[in-house]
Amino acid sequence: MADFKNPHFSLMTSPAEKKKASQIAEVAKLTASKVAPAHKALASAFVSRFYRDVDADEFNARDATSWAGLAASHIAFGTEFKSGAAKIRVFNPTLTDHRWTAPVTVAEFINDDMPFLVDSIAMEINRMGFGVQLVVHPLYAAERDANGQLVNLSDPVQGQKLESWIHVETDRITDPDRMQELAKNLERVLGDVRAAVTDWKAMSARVEETLNGMAGAAKAVQLTELDEARDFLRWVADSHFTFLGCRDYELKSENGADQLFMVPKSGLGILRHPEHGGPSKSFSELPDDIRALARKPNLLVLTKANSRSTVHRAGYLDYIGVKRFDDAGNVIGERRFIGLYTSSAYHADPADIPLLRRKVAAVLAKTGFPPASHAGKNLVSILDGYPRDELFQIGEEELFDNAMGILHLGERSRTRVFVRRDIYGRFYSCLIYLPRENYNTEVRLKLQDMLMKTFNGTSTDFNVQLSDSVLARVHLLVRTSPASAIQVDVKSLEQQITATVRRWEEGVFALVVANAGEEAANQARREYVLPFPAAYTEATGPEQAVADFNAARTLTDASPISMTLYHEPGQRARNALRFRL
Q1: Are 546 and 515 in contact (CB under 8 A)?
Q2: Average pLDDT over residues 40-45
Q3: pLDDT, tens digit, for every residue of 394-417?
Q4: Which residues contact 181 (CB under 8 A, 6 or more apart)?
C-alpha cells in the first residue's frame, strides 16, 4: 500500500524518476566504455553521484549517449588536478573533441571544495549577460597520486579532502573572444573565492585584534560610542558578516595635504594585492572636504565600497572602517573590512543589532510617541522595514526626518522621495514611495534614467518592495563621482517623479481638475469607469483626451456626432490635417 504520509514518496516513485534511474544505469555502462581503462571501475560511482540532483524531466529530455559522453569528457578533464588553484575550461561541445554535443556553451571546473563556488560562478556568467541553463555540482572524495593523477573517486567522507566537480551550461557563445573573456573572468572570480576562504580565519582574528587595540580611541570618543562600536564588531564577527577582504591604512600629511597609504603586506582575502602598499588612489581623488572626514574622531565608518562583489552575492561590497588612533587620541589610519552582511543581519530585529538599536531608540525617543500608541507602533514598523543597508549607513537626524516623512505619508496614494548622499560622495541613495498600482518595470526604468541624468550618475542599482500597502517602495542607488556634488531640489525632483509615475488616466483627470474643477473631474471618473483602449492612450495626449471628453459630453440625440478638422501642433508647415470624429 502506498505510504502517503511520506512526503518523498510520490517524488521517488514518479514515472519520471523511474525512467531517470533506468537511464542512469545505461549511462554508467556507456561511460565505462568511453573512459580510459584506468577509470572504468569508477565510472558507475561517478555517474550515480554526478547526475543524482539533476531534475528528472531535464535528465530524461536527453538520451543516454549524450549524458555518457558528457560524463566521460568531464572525467578525462579531471584526470589530472593539483590542489591550490581551480582547473577551468570553457568550450562548445563537439562529438570529435568532447564525445558529446549540444547547442550550448559549457564551463567546467575541478576545484578544492569550498564555500561560494557555484553562486560566484553563476553570478559572473549572469553578469556577462549569458543565461545559465544547467548546473551540475557534485562533491567527490578524490584519491590522487603525488603527481595529481586521478586514482579513485568516491562519495564524500567526513574528514577526507573533497573536490568540487562543476558543470555549467550557458547560452551558446559563438565569439571565441567572448569565450576567452568568460574563462578569464571565471578564473579571476575563483581566485577571489579562494583568497577570501583561505584568509577567513585571519580576517576574523583581525577583528579580535582590533577590539584589543582601542586604547587610543578611548581618548577621542565617548565611552558609550566606544562600547557600542565594540559590541557591533563582536556582532559582525558572530556570523553576521561574510569577510571577503581586510587591509590596514596609514593617514599621513604630505606637502600640507592628507594622504592615505596602504600598509605593506597587511592585505587579506581579496585585498591581498598590492602587497607592497602605496598611496590610495581613490582617497587622493576625493575633494578636500571629504578627505577631511578621515581626521574626524568617529570610530566606525559604515558604507558601501566602490567595487562590486565577485564572491557569493551580487551587489556592491559592504565597507566597515575602524579608525586607528595614537596614544594621544589622534586619528592615524584605518583598518578596513569589506564583505557582505549575511541574511541573518538583514532579518534580525534592529533592536538586537548594536549601533542600529541606538539609532532606533534615539528616533523613537525624539518623537515622544508612547510605545503602545498607534503612531508609536507605526513608527517601529517603519524602522523595522527600513532598507537595512540604509539603516546601517544613515545618521540619526536624517533617519528621524525620513521616518517621520514616511509616517506622515501613511497609506495615502501619493509620491514621496527621500535622498541621501554617501559620506564619501560615491553614490546617492533615493528612497521613492509611489502608488503601488502605478508601479511596473517601465516606470522603474524611467526612474533610473531620470535619476542617472539628475545626479550625473554612472550606474544604478535598485530594490523594489511590493506589499499589501497601497504604496510601492523603490530604493535606487545612483553611483556618482565624488567630485560631482549635485545640489538637487528634492521637492522639484518629487514633482518630476510624480509626473513620471502618474498613469495616463490620472494625468487626464488632473487636467480636468485644473481646467474645470473637481466636480467635472469626478463626473469624468463616473462616466469613464472602464480602462481606455491602449491604442487610444498611446496616440492621445491628456490635453486631447480632455477635448475629446468635452466633445463627447455635448452629444445629444439631435446632434449625435462631433467632428473636427485640425492641424497637429508643429505640423502646419507640412500641410498635414487630422480628422477627429
Answers
A1: yes
A2: 91
A3: 999 999 999 999 999 988 888 999
A4: 128
* Burial class of residue 519 (count of CB atoms within 10 Å of its CB; 0-12, 13-18, 19+): exposed
Please tell me the number of Cα atoms within 13 Å of 240 on its side-chain side: 20
CA angle 256, 261, 265 (to 5 degrees): 160
| Residue whose C-alpha cell reads 598611496 in the numeric block | 279
Count each helix (H run) and each strand (E run) in the chain, helices first. Answer: 23, 19
* Gap between the Cα atoms of 464 and 436, Å rounded: 11
Mean pLDDT of the chain: 91
355: left (phi over 0), alpha (psi -120 to 50) or beta: left
* Model pLDDT for residues 160-217, shown as the tens digit of each residue: 889 999 999 999 999 999 999 999 999 999 999 999 999 999 999 999 999 999 999 9
- Outline where DSSP puts E strands in 208-358: 241-254, 257-262, 268-269, 278-279, 300-308, 316-325, 331-341
Q: Which residues of 73-110 are buried (b: 16+ CB within 10 A; e: fewer)?
A: bbbbbbeebeeeebbbebbbbeeeebbbebeebbbbbb
Identify the CA nearest to 402 among candidates 441, 363, 434, 438: 363
Q: What is the pTM of this model?
A: 0.87
Q: Tell me which amino acid residue 481 is.
A: S
Give the Cα-Cα-Cα angle 261, 264, 266 (nearest 5 degrees): 100
Can you tell me the distance from the alpha carbon of 396 to that of 383, in angstroms, rounded to the nearest whole number? 12
